[in-house]
Specification:
Layout lengths: L1 E6 L4 E10 L2 E11 L6 H19 L3 E5 L7 H20 L3 E5 L1 H9 L6 H12 L8 H27 L5
Parallel strand pairs: 1-4, 4-5
Antiparallel strand pairs: 1-2, 2-3
Helix pairs in contact: 1-2, 3-5, 4-5
Length: about 170
Amino acid sequence: MLVIGIDPGLTTTGFGAVRKVGSRVEVVAAGVIRTDKDLSAARRLDGLYRDMTELIADVQPGVMAVEQVFMNRNRLTATRVGQASGVVMLAASLAGIDVFEYSPSAVKAVVTGDGSASKAQVQQMVARRLGLAEVPSPADTADALAIALCHMQSMGNMVGRLTAVHGGRR
């Protein structure tokens, strides 16, 4: 299954699509969607929606994993990230794609084994787990790939637990 991870933001939204091939995970697409800071928030959200719709059509993910919005000291930033997250989830829903949300600490814990890992540690582990020569750049791309890896591993663990509970039956 192809999983697309999304690190939402109004200025920059990171995306990273991965799929399992045998025992390894490969990157299918990764990058960022940027919006013009000179436009109104409504126009920027419209542009993000259109770009996300196009990305979904191009990549055709089976599922989307999105980083949950967390409240920080800057309420406006949190509000804008929440708006961007809503637009991203709407685009996925209208395309018939299930969306799963993960907290930043959950992503860190699954990808690195430490829920309080630094951004640099997460980026290094993403590169290592995907067999990349360099850390994905910009950071939003690495974060999106981490979110996709988190979902892929979480779903794999769930299938393993269900198989064990049901004696190998699915």
